Amino acid sequence: MTGTVYKSTGSWYTVKTDNGKVYECRIKGKFRIKGIKNTNPVSVGDRVGFSVEKNTEENRGIIERIEERTNYIIRKSVNLSKQTHIIASNIDTVFLIITLNNPPTFPAFIDRFLVTAEAYGIKAVLLFNKIDVYDEEELLEVKYLAALYRKIGYECIGISAKTGKNIAKVKNLMKDKVSVFSGHSGVGKSTLVNAIEPGLSLKTAEISDQHQQGQHTTTFAEMFDLSFGARIIDTPGIKGFGVVDIEKEELGDYFPEFFELKPMCKFNNCLHINEPKCAVKEALEREEIAWSRYKSYLQILEGEEEHYRKNNYSED
Ligand SMILES: Nc1nc2c(ncn2[C@@H]2O[C@H](COP(=O)(O)OP(=O)(O)OP(=O)(O)O)[C@@H](O)[C@H]2O)c(=O)[nH]1
Ligand SMILES: [Zn+2]
């Protein structure tokens, strides 16, 4: 039998077949995937092959194999074993919910999030929430930001989880896909999920300082079926949508508008800092690339973790 892992509690995995039949499965013996040093061999979102256990309670199974993952998001282990914990796998879209204020979501944070999504190979969509309360000036800022990120290739939608504005568009993007919702605490994740699927309440967690990641919370990701053929993975207690180690040389590749220009840089290993004839810096001077993006790039490159709570627009 084959199915998808909907829930994992450490030793038991809830697996749903394509016909909707649910099995509680275990793993037999040491079950390891080659090349991955992780604490959990099977994660929510995995497609698995399993056998139904005979002579036991009904709907029990043993997982025998995992299909290759298209992607997965991770958390570093809290102890120093250098192991990683796979939070979830096979994600189609990750939605970042953004508000200008109450709470503020700064471009540096958005950029860090997008870099992570690029590194993971997951499509990212930006949702600007609470547009019902913005004044004209704030709406202009949303428009500006949306235009900035659309130009790079990211889908952007202004929404109101409260009034229902553009929620149908979000649902459309989610149909037949597996989605994850992220954003700071208070941006409206719970309200949005409830607008999308009334009655479903998730324990959606804040994306927060990576410094707080050490504060271990023993909660587990879980996948939910929605009424319109979409699926959501809820990641409660997981601070951050994961941490990826990115080499300095590859960071620019996760800024799509930089990556596109890289072949035109004089040096093929150009870091776009002080190198001569750098196509990225030239585009920056012509204002074809946003300065806020370049600032975020330099900050990530320098490993300045603190900056994502500051506003890269302010003149400093
Ligand atoms: N005006 C307005 N308020 C909203 C909207 N969406 C959410 N809110 C309000 O924003 C506050 C926070 O919303 P939540 O849905 O609890 O935010 P959350 O992201 O789930 O927060 P955490 O659970 O802390 O992660 C609540 O008071 C909501 O009523 C919106 O579109 N417009
Ligand atoms: Zn360059």
Automatic annotation (TrEMBL):
It is found in: Cytoplasm. Its cofactor is Zn(2+). Residues 89-239 form the EngC GTPase domain. PROSITE patterns: ENGC_GTPASE (PS50936), G_CP (PS51721). Zn(2+) binds at C265, C270, H272, C278. Residues 80-241 form the CP-type G domain. PANTHER family: SMALL RIBOSOMAL SUBUNIT BIOGENESIS GTPASE RSGA, SMALL RIBOSOMAL SUBUNIT BIOGENESIS GTPASE RSGA 1, MITOCHONDRIAL-RELATED. Monomer. Associates with 30S ribosomal subunit, binds 16S rRNA. This is Small ribosomal subunit biogenesis GTPase RsgA. The lineage of its organism: Bacteria, Pseudomonadati, Bacteroidota, Flavobacteriia, Flavobacteriales.
